[in-house]
Specification:
Layout lengths: L11 H12 L2 H8 L20 H22 L5 H21 L4 H23 L4 H17 L9
Helix pairs in contact: 1-2, 2-4, 3-4, 3-6, 4-5, 5-6
């Protein structure tokens, strides 16, 4: 399935419904856990990186691994629309798992959701824009930001 070009301009409930129809029921949890992160900016926790839990650690490792595995074909421009669809679905599965299962303090959670929003926007853009590379770049920037603002042993930007 393809997402509508203006998916993120729609209200959150419609967005969650679209994700649910495309990716399955776990997207509902993302809606329930979501906050207004559009107006927030990433910041450190009093000069220190935010601490994460094992769920976030595992999910972000999975997203990074998927991007690393996909990178050679993306760079060669041999990545197919079906592969972008599968990559996006895998990333969204990880995001939904983190949203449902992470146990972060409220302020940390709010900061982490900025990263989640950036990644989700990148997934949508790589599936809907004429140049999927723009969405991939957005995901890569979000992963770099994640490493700057959150503790994650062994994390390396792409």
């Amino acid at each position: 399935m393809r997402y509508a070009r203006n998916l993120f301009a729609m209200p959150l409930a419609v967005t969650a419904l679209g994700l649910t129809l495309t990716l399955g029921a776990p997207a509902i949890a993302a809606e329930e856990h979501d906050h207004d992160h559009a107006s927030m900016q990433l910041q450190l926790d009093h000069g220190r990186k935010w601490k994460i839990d094992a769920v976030v650690h595992r999910g972000m490792d999975e997203i990074r691994t998927a991007m690393v595995k996909s990178a050679p074909d993306i760079h060669k421009k041999t990545f197919t629309p079906e592969q972008y669809e599968a990559l996006g679905a895998h990333i969204m599965t990880q995001i939904n798992d983190m949203v449902i299962n992470c146990k972060l303090p409220e302020e940390t959670d709010a900061q982490f959701h900025i990263i989640i929003t950036q990644i989700t926007n990148g997934v949508e853009e790589m599936k809907t824009l004429p140049d999927p590379g723009q969405g991939v770049e957005k995901i890569i920037r979000a992963l770099a930001d994640y490493g700057k603002y959150f503790t994650h042993a062994g994390w390396r930007p792409l």
